[in-house]
Amino acid sequence: MKELTHQDMPPMDAKSGNNEGKALAVQSVLERLGGDEELLCEVIDLFIEEVPDILTTLEAAIESGDWESAAKLAHTLKGSSSNVGAERFASVVLELENHSKEENSSGAIKAYRTLRDEFAAVKQFVSDPTWIKSGG
Fold this sequence. Notes:
There is one protein chain. Helices cover about 70% and strands about 0% of the residues. The protein is an all-alpha fold. The chain is elongated, with a radius of gyration of 15 Å. The two termini are about 20 Å apart.
């Protein structure tokens, strides 16, 4: 399977309507997975399972001012979220990565809070049994 990168992900914009308002860019990821819905579900399940621990570690790094660790964790999350088509999540985690590199505590905290909300949106999106079909 080809590793998906952030550059592989199509932009979300209002003009094209591509994935507008969606927590995941399902169709674009499915295309890269050869239409394998089972594989997509496995990848999403793994993402949903692993992100909470990373967020907990990331929060601790931010709170302690360990900016190097925070930036590395954010970078890891950026790749993971891009791979599963969580574009809004990836965008916020990029902000968090940049704030961490700049040692910008208030920006990092704000981005982290938004990141938690975006993760909740992804979980909510995939809680619908028809999420693959409704995923745009």
